[in-house]
């Protein structure tokens, strides 16, 4: 390609001149091509790889030089000799004569540069060139990546790093390429080339470690082997990017969420590193936004815009605190440099004024932000204050417009709802009798009228009992707690904008007052932000979800009365109805989760302390942000944290870890503890204190508390002999955890089932237990937990994938002749094909092809495009040249439900017949493929007999396009398949139940047969046999027409009786050969032309074969209809006439209509609707040809095909050979 001229000082260094003229030189890089260049070439090639030279991609170039100058200019380079030769010839024909006119060399140089730049500009204009953010250096790396590993354009390179790959004890210096879906390595040293390609989805472990020889190593592990990479310039950056990409791959396996690049990033700055791609910047921005959202508990769609160092004036202690300000689309946040010193969240919806204050020596570059609740925040020491104020102003303007748009159309509705809400609140608070309250609540909550809103009070306020006098000291302590919190909120601010400090944490550890619990849970979890920004969302969900029934609602109904049944709030329909609405609304909000056991227990506690809508948003925060993936169908998040807990136990209680692993207790206890936040294993009044700490500190509190429980029982657990005894020890301990400050009446605890008669465990104060967990295990950091989660997520998801594979194989191994090993290998290929379609696109919605909530067999499905790739590699009838139409037909046959997708069972059912079925089964499959309406045929008539068979008048489109567009025309045959499947379930399929094949379908069958044999060793013999069979079938169909002509019912019965008695009809051709040869024309001929029948002498062998085949077919009348019997009897007498009437179709084309050579069929493209053959006729005709029988009964070496498929499936492209996870070396 042409490039902007660049000067070159040493033209001959490392390059060989191949052509030259007075002004231009064409050169080739040393070491490139067949010659290799000897030792010098090897050294140059090695240097190009190690130093990342662009000559590795473009080994040819053209230089410009004036005769008297020592400076050369490179004006073009090329990846191939053909490309560079075209440029060279253009220069010789268009520029050489023009340059000779100039007298001044400077003018020549200016002219050449201008000409080349003009060519580049014209090319960009014609190609609709779009400027992107990738630098020229990175574009070179993309070109190398695609060339070296054969990647398509859809595979996006993120970054590449220089490193060494260790194969055995020998390091290979090269380049590590990290793309969205693959990790690749390339090395070239002294003629030895090494390539490695591994999918991120196949990685089971990714870690950074140190050895004695190598200080820092990145280890990439798959199911097959380990790969070690070292000698990185920046190993931390490389490892963080690898972690992020592996996480994306695991997310794709988990819930099929593909990667979509963010196009809204700001343009690349000039100071940015040269090789940073736009995709790398996108991923960096994502990682920063994720940390930002986790730190401040912000909604999932919040994107960090930037951050800067600053100071914050804190009025409660009169200090300037050093930290960082974070600015995003809807929030301004601050976090101190020292943990827990101070953090702050300011939603822009609360901001009223942003202004620059006067600078001074004490307070340089100050910024003042005021909010609606009359709080003012003063930031200082801002480096770029003007730019920051402009960004905040822009976001503030967007936020104001959003609020206006949200309020404008629903203002009146919102106000009326508020009035009704306040009325209901007063009604609930003023109803004195509790029994009537329950009935009223039931009546109101079961109604789903727009005028009746959901509950506006926490259930605890309706069922609080404070009458006994013995609770007075506890009530006094509760009152002191409330006063302490009120004083704190007065000093540190109320609402979202409060200063969060170490004192706030101390108050949480002392317990949140009952009256303030719901409000503070909303605040600390961040659920308040989502609730405020989505007014009316919950009511709309309730309205849409009520009355809807699915699997989730059935499970919810089953668990409603198991949710905190000991609490009076859930012993009547009022609490049950509120719980039902919240769980059902969330199931409709997030169908990927729907409903999971343990959600009911957590939600019931939320409803006790929060209003119904607040409880819903708390549940959203819990399931989608604070406990990610906990409540999906496979509780992946809980399994991940179980692995994290095992790692923490090994580190913090090593003396107990081995014992617990031997007993298998950790995996048992962790799920119940984590999924319900200890609510199911601890007394209620104690467990809510754990929930208080969880909403403030996150998951680290649960880990700390679990470790404290193990540490407190370490001696008893070491003496346990089995898991039952260990569970009893832990159950008795947790059951004894009490909250002496609780003002609630004692609730019977039904969680712990004690099996021994020992003395009860001494009481354990919950506040002391929480304090102890912070003192002993408070050093656990959230970022360390996230690192551990990543490591465990790889292990858990790959274990789930292995389990899926084993369950699929176990399910269908009894249905197929394939062995277990073969099925496992085939499943891996099938899944790989699905993942490839996810990587590089496809015509079907990805969410329809992969749904982890479905049964194992249905989780992975492929469309016709992916099936074609597997068909070419695995199916014995496939050949490279003509496999597409046959693959399309086979796919339609396997697609039983007509949704344009097939699962693994359907795939294996078809492959089993072709590999291990008998001759009849294979021919039946081939026959049935062509009975269905064709997706690629251009003939105007459809399967006439098939429509009679299915009792449906269906006429397919006259032109359906190529088979690749099959997904848009599946309705033509869907009805066929559904009825066919229903019939086949009730009646075992026999040959006589198959519909007849009309003439158009028969022509397509002939095309298929000819295309199947195009690459076979016995190709000519098979062609001859096919011609004989098709001629025979054409004769059968023609003669059969004579017995299918419409006529009176009595005449038809008379004909059938005569056929059974062996007598010919009075006015139709007889079955005798001599009589038939003298008949003028058959009645079914629509053109009325006479048909000449020539009686040639055929070989005795041929006549005998046909006669015996006919005799065999007529021997069993119970398996054939009358038409087929009559047709065979006629042909058996006249079989010696076939030689001259053979079908001429050796050179058949896609648009050719097969005709006989002597006029049995008219020479036109019209289809004779009266012409038809049966499957018995097709089967018998094939049996007459030994070559065809031998072809269809040829054994298939499935293991060899699977091995070949694995070697050919390099990242989904059959044109490249590779071996998964292995290094390929070539001299």
TrEMBL record:
Domain (EF-hand) ranges: 882-917
Feature: compositional bias, Basic and acidic residues: 1050-1062
GO process annotations (BP): system process
A UniProt-annotated Pfam family: GRAM
Coiled-coil regions, chain positions: none
Domain Rab-GAP TBC per the UniProt entry, residue ranges: 511-698
Region of interest (Disordered), residue spans: 1047-1107
Protein name: TBC1 domain family member 9
Lineage of source species: Eukaryota, Metazoa, Chordata, Craniata, Vertebrata
